[in-house]
Amino acid sequence: MISFARGVPAPECLAVEELAESARAALERDGHSILSYGPGGGYGPLREWLAERHGVEPGRVVITSGSLQGFVFLAEQLVRPGTRVLVEAPTYDRPLKILARLGAEIVPLEMDEEGLVPEAVEEALDAGAAPAFLYAIPTFQNPSGRTLSLERRQRLAELARERQLLVLEDDPYGLVRYEGESLPSVFELAAGESIAYASSFSKTVAPGLRVGWFVLPQQLAKEIEALAVSTYISPPFLSQATVFEFARRGSFEPNLERVNGLLRERRDAILEALAREMPEDASWTQPDGGYFVWLDLPSGPPTDELFAQAEEAGVTFVKGTDFFPGGRGGERSLRLAFSFVSPDEIAEGISLLGNLARAAAPSASATL
Amino acid sequence: MISFARGVPAPECLAVEELAESARAALERDGHSILSYGPGGGYGPLREWLAERHGVEPGRVVITSGSLQGFVFLAEQLVRPGTRVLVEAPTYDRPLKILARLGAEIVPLEMDEEGLVPEAVEEALDAGAAPAFLYAIPTFQNPSGRTLSLERRQRLAELARERQLLVLEDDPYGLVRYEGESLPSVFELAAGESIAYASSFSKTVAPGLRVGWFVLPQQLAKEIEALAVSTYISPPFLSQATVFEFARRGSFEPNLERVNGLLRERRDAILEALAREMPEDASWTQPDGGYFVWLDLPSGPPTDELFAQAEEAGVTFVKGTDFFPGGRGGERSLRLAFSFVSPDEIAEGISLLGNLARAAAPSASATL
After folding, report:
1. Which chain A residues have a beta carbon less than 8 Å from that of B210?
2. Is A212 within 8 Å of A198 (Cβ atoms)?
3. pLDDT band at A367, cuts 50/70/90?
4. Measured between alpha carbons, how far is B101 from B95 in angstroms, rounded to an integer?
5. Chain B contact probe: residue of A34, A43, A201, A204 with most B CBs at under 10 A
6. What interface predicted TM-score (ipTM) does this complex get?
7. Chain A residue with Cα closest to B227
8. Which residues of A256-281 are buried (b: 16+ CB within 10 A; e: fewer)?
9. Which of A39, A241, A304, B303 is most buried per CB count within 10 Å?
C-alpha cells in the first residue's frame, strides 16, 4: 500500500544515532532533574531556550507531550458546551474531534488560495457570541498546504487586538520550508498579544519524542500549567532534555536542513506527478513547504468512491470531508501527504490515482 | 527545610548512569519505532513485558505518562457530574481533586488498621446509585501506609464480582517492600475480573520518566486507548523504551533491591525517631513498605497550627485534611513521607516535630 495518508516524516529523516547520543548525554549531564518530578510546564533548559527564541519570559512557555496535548488543555480550559470556536475550513481533523467532544459550536471559516479569508473572521465575530478562540494554521496548513499571505497575517493580528480575539496559531510546519522567504508569524506581528502560539519538534526532530510547546499570555500559561500538573504532575523530561541536548550541541539547524532536503525531493516528485497524471480540470495546491498537497477533482467520483477504488489499487489518502466540521465540505477533495513515501512510490501512487481520476473525468467518459 | 512532604525517592535511588546507558541502547536498537508515532496504548515491547507479568493479553495493558494520567482518562471516561465514586478515607489527594473537578459525588469509606473496611463498601453500595468505581490503594497506602489484610482483599474481590463493582486498584508501592511476605493483589484474587489494576515505575525506577500502566477489562482498555490517541496520538516512547531496556538487561530487580535497602533505612529511622520523640498519646502506622507513615496527634494542636509552627522550625509535612474529600477528616493527623530525606534529617526533623507535639500534649501542658 502506498500511503499518502500518513502526515509523518520519512524514516530516513530520523537522526537515530545522534538522538541516542543526545539522550545519553542529557541523562549524564542532568540526570537527577530529568529523572525526578519537576515543573509541569516542562524541562527548564528547553523552556528557556524556547523562551529566548520567542522573546518571552520562560513562564509563558508550556511544553507538552506533543502540541495536541496542549490543544486539549487549552480547549478544556476555554471551551464549555455551546462555546463558539472559529476554525479554518478545511482544518486539521484531530482538533475538530476534540472540540466536538467538548460540545463546542464549531464555526467553519472560508479559505482561498491565500489562506483564511479575514472578512470571514469578521463576519463570524459579528454573527454571534464571542468565540473562545480562532484556531488557525497559517503556514503550510494541514490539510491544504496553503500559506496565509503577509497582508492577511497583519489583518489577523489587528483583528486579534481590536476584537479581543484569542488566535491559536498552530505552526508545526513553519520551519519545514523548501523554498521562498519565511513570513513572520501572526504571533510576531501581534507582538505576542492575544495570540497563543503552538509548535512542535515532531517535524523538525522526531514525532515519537512528543515534544510540543505553547507560548501563551501569562495568565493562560499559569492556568494551563496548573492543568498539566493536575493531569500528569510533570511531563516526561527525558524526551524534552534529549531535544534540548540535540539543540545544545548544534544539531538542530543542520538536521533541519537535511530533513528539508529529503522532503523537498518528495514535494517536487508529487507536483511533477500530479501535473503529469491528473485530468485537465483537476487542481491542487503548490506548497513551498510542509507535508501536504490538497487535490480537487471536480469531475472525479465522490472521494468516498475514489477512496475505495484507490485502496483496491494499492494507494491510500485522507478524504477531504474529514477536515470539515461535521464532514460538510471537501466531497471531491483529497489530502495527499508526501512526507512519508519515497519519490518513486510517489510517482507510482499518483499514477494509480491519476488513472482512477481520469477514468471518471468528462473527457475520459466521452470516449467510453 | 526538612521535607516530610515529598513522596518521592531520595536522589541516590536514581540509577542515573544505567538509565543513561539504557536510553542510548534503546534508541540504537529500536530508534525508528521509538521516534515515530505508534500505538496510543504504549511502547510494544514494554506492553508485552507487562502483559506477561500480569498474565493478560497486551491489548489489556495501557501505558500512560505516569499512572495519574491514566486515572484522568479513566475518570473522564466513567464519571459525569453527579456520578458516585467510592474512595478510601483518607486517600491520595490528587485523584480527589480530579474527581472533584469532574463533578463526581465522592463517597469516603472508613478504614482501620487493616485498611479499607469491607462493610463500609457494602453500605455505600446499598445507600445509593451504582458507583462508577471504587478507588483503592490496598498496599502501603498513600497517605496512611496501611495495607489491606488478605481476608479483606478476598472480600473485596468477591464484592467486585457479586456487586458488579469496578475496583480501581492503585498499586505503585507493592514492590517497595522492606519486610514481610507480599500479599496477592485484589486483581490476582479476582482473576482480573471487574478490576482495573494500576501501577507505575515511579517508585521502582524513576518518577521523572513518567511511566505508569493500567491493566483493564478488554472493552475499557480499548476506550482508554482511544482517549489516549485523541489526546496525544501516542505517548512518549523514549521513557517507556528506556524502562524496557533497563528491565531487558536485568537491572530492574537488582535496582529495586538496592532502592528498597535505601528506603528501609529511612523507614527504620522514622519509626525509631517517632518512638523516641512523640508524646504518649500519639499513634502512627508501622508500614512494611512504601513511603508513608500516618501520625495521629489526638492532643496536639490542630494540624493547621502545627503546620505553621513546623515550617517556622524548618520542618514540613502534608496535613491530614488534604487526604479527605472536602477536607472533612484528619484534622489532627499528618502524612510523613520518609522516602526523600536522609536518616539523619529524619531524626532531626522528627525531633523538631516531637518538641512541638509534646509542647501541646496534656502532660506537657500540665508542667507549664
Report:
1. 232-236
2. yes
3. very low
4. 10
5. A34
6. 0.95
7. A98
8. beebbeebbbbbebbbebbeebbbee
9. A241
